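Record type: monomer structure entry
Structure origin: computed from sequence
Chain ID: A
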Amino acid sequence: MLAQQRQQVILDLVQQHGGVRVADLVREFGVSDMTIRRDLEVLADRGLVSKVHGGATTVGAGSTEEPGFAAKSVRQREEKEAIARRAARLVRPGTAVAVSAGTTTWTLAHHLTDVPELTVVTNSIQIADVFYRASRADQTIVLTGGIRTPSDALVGPVAVNAVRALNVDLLLLGVHGMSTRAGFTTPNLMEAETDRAMVGAARRLAVLADHTKWGTVGLSTIARLSDADVLVTDSGVGDEARKQLADEVGELITVDPGEADA
């Protein structure tokens, strides 16, 4: 396959899935890591994709744009890992927690499979699958059901009604954006409604959001910054943003991505 043909296929994959990983493309095309990275550089130079750590995603981000799970999973992976490790320490054995859909919370789920006697309520097929694969007899997993979004969240009346009938000790919430004006937001109206139901069902709210979420505003607000008992983010958050967040949330926890390997 010629380079131009391969680049066109890569572009089609990005547009179809919202993002691609270098490792996946290496296996797909049977070429070297360097070859794929050069292809992505060519596409990025033409303004057709945005290069991110470990892959590429679609270009642009409006308030109603909702990246797919694959697109988000290649972004800020080190930050998400560090955030997930720290957030897992908020979860106690024998409690009931809700975990919203998202790639940061999906990363978190891998660290919660070791927590004994945990009940997990989630509206994410991806997150439920993490626990099902772990196959712990002492853990109970509740999948809400509902309509599937591009980011693999289950939303709508079925999901909302399921959540409203429950009471959990802690909600671990992933978000699309956060700002002082709009609070914690998402580009999907139905997902916002489902997430708000989760907030209402939880005794405490912990938000997981890397530094790139600061200043990003989705179409619909899930909760105010002051509604968060805890916000776990990474050290990439600027000093001014950190001050504003500390003034609003109950507890601000910042982690260094280097902690992911600790």
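Annotation 1: Residues 72 and 176 are 10 Å apart (CA to CA).
Annotation 2: The chain has ten helices and 15 strands.
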